[in-house]
Amino acid sequence: MSELLFYSRNGCHLCEAVEAEIAGHAAAAGLTFRKVDVDTDAALMEQFGVRVPVVVHGETVVDEGRVEPARVRDYLATAVGLE
Q: What residues does each domain of the chain span?
């Protein structure tokens, strides 16, 4: 099963606002939803820094910053056949 990665950090209000809806879209698409705290890894912190939340599927950055759940849903509809 493929994963939808959700890069975030503690205290990120933008992350908290969309996490549940993004997780729901992942489940509907048959994907594993995995939340990753960028503050636990220096390389992730350097890569994503203040860009969180960042939603990644495979090698594709689906959305970042002010993540729009509808944009993620539309991507998943095309990429994995979410209805």
A: 3-80
Superfamily of domain 3-80: Glutaredoxin (3.40.30.10)
Beta-strand runs (E) in 1-83:
3-8, 32-37, 54-57, 60-64
| 55-26-16 Cα angle (round to 5) | 55
CA angle 24, 36, 57 (to 5 degrees): 60
Tens of pLDDT, residues 4-57: 999 999 999 999 999 999 999 999 999 999 999 999 999 999 999 889 999 999
Instruction: Give the pTM.
Output: 0.92
The residues facing 8 across adjacent strands are 37
pLDDT at residue 83 in the model: 59
Residue 63 CA to residue 68 CA, distance in Å, equals 7
